[in-house]
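#structure-requests
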Amino acid sequence: MKKIAIVLAVLIVVVGIGLYFVYSNLGAILKAGIERIGSATLGVKVTVEKVEIDPAAGTGAITGLTVANPAGFSPGQAFTLGRVALSLDPTSLTRDPITVRELAVEKPRIAYEHGPNGSNLDALVANAKRQSGGAGGAATEKKDAKPERKLVVERLVFRDGVVAASHAQLQGRNVEAKLPSLELKDLGKAKGGATPAELAEEVVSAVTREATRAALGDINAAIERLRGTAREQIQNLQQQLPGALRGILGGEQKK
């Protein structure tokens, strides 16, 4: 009986040490998970500077999250998220789905680059759809892989965002536009939770729609300004040309 008690005591200590390790390293574990799942879902490098999480309070923050541009576009970042504040239901951490009460994305910066075959944001959405199985795509699955934990996001907001847009017709210039505030509710709730890939597709698609709308408005306005400047230069040249020609011809006649 004494031996059993000793074994149980040892097991309790081991479990306690294991739980302490998990909880004390939860930020690093989540950071690695975001980078791994994000990179696999979007088909580009996703990096996170730091994740802080208080599982007892159900609060935390993600800082320095970046999403690289897809292949075929300029080097750099498509998304740079300054800070993401999160609030979740702590009791759901041991259940499926995990309930995230709110994700608040503050001061995101989005680079919109228009190429001959569409934009960099369109390419990211296409990658996410292929991974999640959306729009007729087949979801990527590993043989004998464990089922993914699902999530429900009750509220997701984007605040104070900026879209930096580039286009061939802008002749190397960039224009910046304000990203309208965006709010999404009950993501994954209708089907009892969504996988990270499914959530990524839905969120990236929604942000891409708003960013594209904001970027195209400013791009078109900038192109019109360039055309207006070009027209003025042509008109000035047309006005100056007759006088210049008369001066040249007059000089020739005097000779």
